[in-house]
Structure formats: structure tokens, C-alpha cells
Amino acid sequence: MKSATLTSLNTIDGETLMSRPLQPLSFVVDTLISQGLHILAGSPKVGKFWLALWLVVMVAKGESVWGMQVKQGTTAHEDQAVPQ
Length: 84
Fold this sequence. Notes:
mainly alpha, extended
């Protein structure tokens, strides 16, 4: 088994970080949901599971969401609230 080699940790100061230009957001659902990881939170039994499932299906199919354009793509849905 190979041993892992450690690399040095490169750090920068806050001023340098704040001066870096940001990449523009790429929206999956126009002006509503950008690409990346999202957490949908709220009270129990208000429909979070079904909303998330519907959104995942709409993005996978490339169909509009509430009249907003959708960029079709690969989706994943994980529900931690479902009892095992």
C-alpha cells in the first residue's frame, strides 16, 4: 500500500480573497436555483419531499418550473428524513 504524501497548505489573506473576481452563477432554474448543492428545510409534513422530487424530475426532463426556463441536466435527490 502506498503512503500518502502531504502537500503544503496554501493560504491567502482576506484582502486577496475579496479582490478575486467571482464566476457568474449558472442557473438550473432561471433566477431561482443555481448549480450546486442545496438544502430544502422547513416544518415537518409541509411537502418538502414532494417539492424536491418534482424539481428533480423537471430538471432531468428539461421542463419549465413555474414558467421559468430550466437547463436540462443530471440530477440527484437524497432524503435524510425517510425512516429506515
